[in-house]
């Protein structure tokens, strides 16, 4: 175990775990919202194909473009056609874009690509996989971040620089990238099937910039993020923020098609000041198959709050190197199997059960992992 990691993760636990407890204690309605959200997501997962169709139709009604893709290759092909070559691209945070290898693919095409979520930006600079689902650079201490920024970008910082100074330097650097970007690429916390809106929750403001400043916005999202209504999507944003320990969130963004205005005779026309084009790419990559399995289906309820990681003894002793990037920790052990057909991360689980206790969606993670172990053993003995 690296000492750097040990220090970084201990600081993270100290900062995050008591804060989530306080949030849930002070805002008890979040528990009811989480229950309601689980029920809404279960409805979708029991008939996912129908909800995919409904979502595609709804996005088109708002003036957006919507696509369903089976796998990463198809996702890359569509994104490559929309972006082209020689562009500046800013990424908000999209796990599915990472899963599909979109950033590296766009770079190979000759585009300048920047991650703008601070954690993602740091792992891009370090060329390392993320170690946590919402805080990808959680394995880096402040001192290591300073060293990295100095080495890779020549920033005038040192190991004694404060958190605030480091963030300010990145802010100055990325501000120009946002303003000159041709395309913004994000994920979504939730997609509303009834109206075709995507909802994104964040604190940095980078998602707001990525979705509004460039003339083209592409959202790359797993099909399991579909919820029945915009109300459910907004509930997901609140629940995710609370269980991530960042409540109230600084921003909740709703995007429904390209920018528009109704200011002349109240006729709604597009575009206005924001993007001229909005593209939603819904990615399957194993999710539809999982939705048909009564045990694996549970894993698709995950809202990526990252709470299970910090309560898991195995995540802590494995240096964060648990799961196939970008999926880590207990949720990552489930998702590594769903997306990459890799059962090995599940084998590390010792079934302490903490993850199930703290999960807002009440996913029975130990049971899912036990099932994946069984499926993995079966795969091996069938060979
Ligand atoms: S499995 Fe549960 S606790 Fe873990 S990230 Fe997903 S929703 Fe959060």
From TrEMBL:
Transmembrane segments: none annotated. The gene is ST1655. It comes from Sulfurisphaera tokodaii (strain DSM 16993 / JCM 10545 / NBRC 100140 / 7) (Sulfolobus tokodaii). This is 4Fe-4S ferredoxin-type domain-containing protein. Keywords: 4Fe-4S, Electron transport, Iron, Iron-sulfur, Metal-binding, Repeat, Transport. Residues 292-323 form the 4Fe-4S ferredoxin-type domain. Pfam families: Fer4_8, LUD_dom. The lineage of its organism: Archaea, Thermoproteota, Thermoprotei, Sulfolobales, Sulfolobaceae. InterPro entries: 4Fe4S_Fe-S-bd, 4Fe4S_Fe_S_CS, FTHF_cligase-like_sf, Helical_ferredxn, LUD_dom, LutB/LldF, NagB/RpiA_transferase-like. GO terms for molecular function: 4 iron, 4 sulfur cluster binding; oxidoreductase activity. One of its GO terms (biological process) is lactate metabolic process.
């Amino acid at each position: 175990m690296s000492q750097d990691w040990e220090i970084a993760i201990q600081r993270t636990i100290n900062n995050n775990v008591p804060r989530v407890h306080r949030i849930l204690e002070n805002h008890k309605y979040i528990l009811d919202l989480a229950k309601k959200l689980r029920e809404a997501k279960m409805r979708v997962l029991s008939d996912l194909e129908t909800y995919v169709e409904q979502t595609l139709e709804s996005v088109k009604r708002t003036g957006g473009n919507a696509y369903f893709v089976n796998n990463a290759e198809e996702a890359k092909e569509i994104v490559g056609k929309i972006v082209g070559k020689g562009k500046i691209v800013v990424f908000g945070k999209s796990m599915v874009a990472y899963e599909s290898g979109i950033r590296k693919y766009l770079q190979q095409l000759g585009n300048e690509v920047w991650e703008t979520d601070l954690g993602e930006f740091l792992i891009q600079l370090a060329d390392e996989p993320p170690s946590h689902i919402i805080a990808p650079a959680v394995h880096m201490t402040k001192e290591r971040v300073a060293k990295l920024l100095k080495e890779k970008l020549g920033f005038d910082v040192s190991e004694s620089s404060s958190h605030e100074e480091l963030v300010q330097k990145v802010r100055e650097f990325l501000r120009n990238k946002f303003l000159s970007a041709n395309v913004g690429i994000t994920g979504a916390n939730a997609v509303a099937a009834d109206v075709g809106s995507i909802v994104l929750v964040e604190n940095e403001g980078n998602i707001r910039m990525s979705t509004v400043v460039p003339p083209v916005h592409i959202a790359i999202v797993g099909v399991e993020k579909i919820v029945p209504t915009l109300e459910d999507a907004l509930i997901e944003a609140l629940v995710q923020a609370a269980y991530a320990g960042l409540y109230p969130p600084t921003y909740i963004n709703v995007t429904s098609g390209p920018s528009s205005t109704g200011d002349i005779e109240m006729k709604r026309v597009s575009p206005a000041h924001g993007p001229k084009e909005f593209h939603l790419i819904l990615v399957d990559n194993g999710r539809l198959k999982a939705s048909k399995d009564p045990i694996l289906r549970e894993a698709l309820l995950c809202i990526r709050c990252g709470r299970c990681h910090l309560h898991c003894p195995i995540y802590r002793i494995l240096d964060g190197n648990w799961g196939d990037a970008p999926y880590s920790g207990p949720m990552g052990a489930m998702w590594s199997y769903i997306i990459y057909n890799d059962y090995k991360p599940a084998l590390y689980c010792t079934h302490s059960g903490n993850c199930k206790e703290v999960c807002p969606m009440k996913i029975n993670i130990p049971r899912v992992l036990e099932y994946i172990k069984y499926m993995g053993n079966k795969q091996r003995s069938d060979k």
